[in-house]
Design brief:
2 strands, globular
Amino acid sequence: MLDSDELAAIVDFHFYPLDISPAIIGSHQQNCTGLAKEETNCNYIADQANLCVQQHSKQRANFTECMFRQALQGDERNPLAARDTFDGQLADCALTLEDYSVDELRSCAYSDEAVQLRASNRDMIADIFADLNMSVGLVWASVDGKLVSGATEDTTSSREDWQHDLVTAVCDAYAGVKPEVCLTRALVA
């Protein structure tokens, strides 16, 4: 929703995947041994791929949306949650990138560079959580230094209320000429 043309023009969007390593997120225990140099957890390898794209591509929103669309199926049907199908799905999502080839993506996602990107991401997440005085959470965003959190961590539930709150927070924080989506939302509220 924040990457829509109107909002993308006013949002400086950064994506920081939740990383509690060395622990593994309880709902993402799947093992992808042999894909990456150091990491064996499928979820963390997917995060490494996302972080590589964040670092090297301008089309990162398209790629991240493709990766997360797989996760919404639940890990039992998510091709990124199994070693045998992970790399093929990674390549499929890489098709959304015009400025970063699948070979470049693989070279980064499975390498020491990705390990370093994850370490930096983990530090950034810790700092953000401390700054916002919040505990670990999945459904949240920081808008202009203020926490906008979702009511549920359940990936099968609708996040419409949170999305509405998030767009409202972005519109309220923006000091320039409000895009149409902000004006329309204000009339509905």
